[in-house]
Structures are given as C-alpha cells and as structure tokens.
Amino acid sequence: MALNDILSAPKRFLSIIFTYILCMTIVLVLVTTTNTLRSGELVNIFGLHESDVFLSIYSEDILSAVVSGEREKLEGTMTRLETELEEIGIEGEASIELFIKYNLKHGDNMFKSMTLIGLNTTTDMYIYNEGTAPQNPNEVAITQLVAEKLDAEIGDTIIVCQEHGEVEYLVTGYYQSMNNLGEGVRFHQDAPVDFSMLSGSLSFQFDYTDSPDEKTKEERFKKIEDLYGEENVMTAGEFAERSTGVGDAIDAIKYLTLGLVIIIIMLVTLLTERSFIAKEQGEIATLKAIGFNTSSVVAWHTLRFVIIGVVSSIIAVLISTPVTNLAITPVFKMMGAAYGVNYEVNLLEVAVIYPTILLVTTIISSVLTSLYTKTIKPSQASSIE
Amino acid sequence: MNILEVKDLCKTYIINKRQNNVLKNVNFSVSEGEMVAIMGPSGSGKSTLLYTVSGMDTLTAGEVKFCGKDIAKLSEKELAGLRLDEMGFIFQQMHMLKNLTVLDNIILPATQSEKANETRKETVQRGHELMRKLGIIDIADNDINEVSGGQLQRACICRSMINNPKMIFADEPTGALNRTSSDEVMAELAKLNSDGTTIMLVTHDVKVAARCTRVMYIVDGNIKGEYNLNRYENESQMRERERALNNWLMEMGW
Ligand SMILES: Nc1ncnc2c1ncn2[C@@H]1O[C@H](COP(=O)(O)OP(=O)(O)O)[C@@H](O)[C@H]1O
Ligand SMILES: [Mg+2]
C-alpha cells in the first residue's frame, strides 16, 4: 500500500527524496574524506614511501645535524635508533627525508624549488605517476607543477644550480606531492648533493625488515610507543593526518554536518508527513472508520518514509564516490596531488553505519509525526470533502 | 436478540466554551435482522447518533451495547477491531484510497482483518463475488477517479460487506445519487438485509425509508416517534407504504 502510494504519485515524494539524497551524500562524502585523510594512502602523495612507523624523536639531534650539514651525525642518530629498537627485539631500517632549496633551470625558465633526497632509502620505494624512478645519480623525478613551471617533460634535461656549479639531471618520471603545494624534485639517493646546504627534514621513518603480520605489527607498535612515548610514534595514517593538520577539523565538520543533517531530515520528514496527514485526512478518517487503528495508520505512513529512505540511501551510496571525486579531488589537487587520490572508502561506514543512522532518524520522526493521526476521528470520514 | 442497545445516550460538543447538547437521553434498541431508518430535520443529530453508537465518536453519557459489549469500555484498538470485523460503514460521500484500484479498496478491510484467515487469492475471489452481486464487476481494476458516483457507492457497500459484518451503518448512502442509482443502491441494501444483515441508515428520502422495517424520527436530539412497517415484500406495496409513511412524517412535523 505504501509502495503503491509512492509509485502512483511520485511527484509528491520527489522533493523529500531529493533532500534525503543530498543530505546523505554530503555526510558520505565527508566520511570518505576524513577516512582518506587518516589512511596511510596519503603518505604517498606527500612524496614519501609508506613506512611502518613514523617517529618524531631526536629532533634536536636532527636539527643540529641539518644546520651543520653533518651527514655522519644524521646516520649516527639513525643507527642509534635502529640499535635501540633491536634491543627490544624489533629489527628494521630507519630512514629520513631531507630538503634542500635549489634554483632550477630549463631553457629560459628558472625558479627556486624545494628538492628532496632520502637518506637510507632508494628511489624505487616511491610511487611515480608517470615514467620511472631515477636509476642513476644524474637522474631526477619531478612533480607536475615543476614540469609545468620549467616547461620540461620526461626525457628532458634540467639544470640544478648547486653549490659547486650547475649540474644537469635527466627527468625520468613524475610524482605527486602535497609538500610545498606540489613543488618538488626527487634526487637519486646517490646524487651529488652537498649536505651543508640542507634546509630541513621530516621525521624518522622505520621499516621492519622481516615483513611481519598485522598482529605482530600492532604489538611492535605498542612496544615502540612504550619506548618513545605515544605522541612521538605514528602510523603512516597518523603522520599524514598530522601533516595536513585538517583531519580533526574535518572530523569536527563531519559530526557537525551529521548533526545538521539529522535535524534537517527530521524537519523535512515532519513537515512532509504533516502535509500528507492534512491532505489525506479524509482517507485516514475513512480507514479508521472501517476499522484501522492508529498504529496501522502510523505503520502505513512510516513505511512510505522507510521505502523512500532506503531508496535514497542506495542512490546516495552509489553516487557518493563520484561526488567525492568531483568535489574533493580538486581540493587535493590544489594542495599538490596533481594525479588525484585513491579514496579510502570504508564500506561498513559508508554503506551501513551512516545510512542506518539517517534511516533511523527518518523512522523515528515519521513515527512521531504520524502519531498525530491519533487526533483524526473516524467520524470525520464523512464530514470532510 | 438485540444487537444494539442504547440507554440514556447523551452527546455534547463543546465549541468555544459553549455546550451543544446534540443528543439528549436517547433510548432505543435494534434487534437482529432489522432495517432501521433514522429521519429528522437537518442538524437534529442523526449523524451524531450513528457515530456514537458505532464507536466512531465518544459518548458523553449513557450506555451503548453492541452485541452485548459496552463500547464505552473498549480501547481505541478494540473499537477499531470491532468496526473492522463486526460493523460495516457507508457514508454519503465516502473516501476511497485514490492510489488503489476499486477491488483493492474493497478488500482492504479484509487484508487488515484476522477474522477470515484466508489467502489473498481467496480474499480477491470474495471481493469479485461481492462486486458481481452488486453489478460492478467490470470496474474491479479501475482507478477510483474513473468510476461514477453510483458505482462508487456500490463499491462502498462491497467494502462494508467484505468482512461479513453483523451490522451496517449508513449515513445518507443515497444522498449524492440520482433517482435511478439511489433506487438500485437501496435495492441492494434491502437484499443484504433480507439475507440477514442488520442495517441502520440515516436518510432524507421517503422512498428509501419506505423500504425499511422501522423508522425513527429524531428532533433536537430526541426520538420524537417511531413507525413500524411490515417487512417489505414486493414493488406493488411500495406506493402504499410511501403514502402511509409520508402521512406519519407529516404528523411528526416533517
Ligand atoms: N464534530 C463536531 N463538533 C462540534 N459540533 C458538531 C460536530 N458534529 C456535529 N456537530 C453539531 O451537532 C449537531 C447535529 O449534527 P449532525 O448529527 O450532523 O446532524 P444531522 O446529521 O442530523 O444533520 C449540529 O448542530 C452540528 O453543528
Ligand atoms: Mg448528517
């Protein structure tokens, strides 16, 4: 009966279906965005390799080594880190990303950009969106933005103005990075880079060498946290989140939006149901006159909203991924992820938890509103035209 | 046996703090198999009487027993159940659900009721049977807005009958119909009555009332008089019955 009502007069339900889909899609897009910001996936688009652990420790040692340009001191600190972890039974390799600012030249184009070299990593550990990893010391990968600014392509040779003169490098590939709003050059690990020019670094990364299973990884993570303090030990996801610094903000927006959406859905349901009741007073009274009790009337009206809610949820779930791409990808692009992001779609949350929350909201408010039909007397059946 | 017993029934509406005593100590009873017409001037409380004795509206004071049950003591749910299973209703302008076909409207009370305990197919069959009996089988699958007033009213009769009620309440069932349709509908109601269904109907039409076994005349919320007729048997009696009833109604102040 309820389905029939919708099918035979779909126009009446169009605006409410539209509202439901809109509300639900907004929530789902935000859910996917926060989940993506929290996933290790994002580390790749910071131009880093995905490590097991990110450690913000010994920062003073790192800083002084960076300032003085002492490669040995950095390597020493890394060895110390590896030894300390080995002592608690965790084997692995530490690495760190270092920044240097250089002028880049290609033809008439020249500008200063941040460049990146990994200490104790190899260039094949990173992700390239086009081309290949630099194989030799005189090869580099660049970001899309740098390619544009220099008007250079894969296979071109660009010039980096280093301390001992201009050095030519062959561009072998493009990568994407949200560091420096998408500007970046990655050197081969053995590139002739003078460490005295270092301008900064990221924190230590650490990779297990014995590829443990998830459970062991978790146990080890706990151990490392115990050793260095929880706030200094991060997963790739946590690191990415801290780097963008918007995870919590978006999370807050997500919950705020969810709250608003719940209120909107309640209001829309309430108003729609009230107008249905007003329009169908005669029918409701008739049903009551011929022996339907209030709860069957409520069930009949609520079922309509349930059907609409379910249909809207399905549509919203289906369109949420394309909509996320459409709405959120440009934001990531603005931050430098020229090739877009792989969204972390948590099926449980997107397809089950949040739709259920909104569906329950719909049911509750339609039941409460349709209880108003209690005031319609069966005897009104004949007095209403 | 009395199917309906009404004792000292009072109904008062309060509008803008002003009391409107619509029914004042009404007493009567209806026994099984009767066909009772309620007549009276407009606003005298005929509809109100019908609604209060059928549990569609609450009573202010007094007692109404339907099949021995005191309806004032029943919950909303029990009352709805009673109306669903044991009572049938026909109104002057009755609503049907616009989004359902005529047949679906007719069998709607049966799908809600647990009385018959049958499959949907059996219900549909009974619906068809009733529609055939009332000559509207052709419109079973039509939409509500595609049928005429007379057909709709007969569909309402089918709907009121689908759960095999003990008693049918009808408020001006022919009020919106032309003479021919009205006669046909009344003939059907009379047939139902002769098949054993008790009927109580409100009417302004002497021809309609003349087919009943009893007429109650109500003025200002009081039963002013009752007029008993023999069971109606054939058309040839009709003129005579109408004339006699008319005379009585004149006495009542019709
Ligand atoms: N729901 C109601 N609320 C208030 N007053 C009502 C209501 N229904 C009927 N009345 C009043 O009760 C009186 C009798 O109405 P009704 O029973 O419909 O008369 P009839 O059917 O004999 O024409 C009228 O004065 C009418 O105004
Ligand atoms: Mg009336």
Task: Describe the model.
The complex is a heterodimer of chains A (385) and B (254). Helices cover 54% and strands 17% of the residues of chain A. Chain A has helices at 2-8, 10-38, 41-44, 59-68, 71-87, 144-150, 214-228, 236-244, 247-279, 281-289, 294-334, 347-370, 380-383, and strands at residues 53-55, 92-106, 109-119, 130-131, 139-143, 157-162, 165-175, 185-187, 198-201, 204-208, 233-234. Chain A has a six-stranded mixed barrel with strand order 2-3-8-5-7-6. In chain A, strand 6 and strand 7 (165-175) form a beta hairpin. In chain A, helix 2 (10-38) runs antiparallel to helix 12. Chain A starts with a helix and ends with a helix. The model of chain A has no long low-confidence stretch (mean pLDDT 87). Chain B has a six-stranded mixed beta sheet, sandwiched between helices. Chain B contains eight helices and ten strands. Chain B is 36% helix and 27% strand. The model of chain B has no long low-confidence stretch (mean pLDDT 90). Chain B is of the alpha/beta class and 254 residues long. Chain B has helices at 46-53, 76-86, 102-112, 120-133, 149-161, 179-194, 206-209, 238-252; strands at residues 2-15, 18-31, 35-39, 61-66, 69-70, 87-91, 167-171, 198-202, 214-219, 222-228. In chain B, helix 3 (102-112) packs parallel to helix 5 (149-161) and helix 5 runs parallel beside helix 6. Chains A and B meet through helix 1, helix 10 and helix 11 of A and helix 2, strand 6 and helix 3 of B. The structure holds adenosine-5'-diphosphate and magnesium ion (MG).
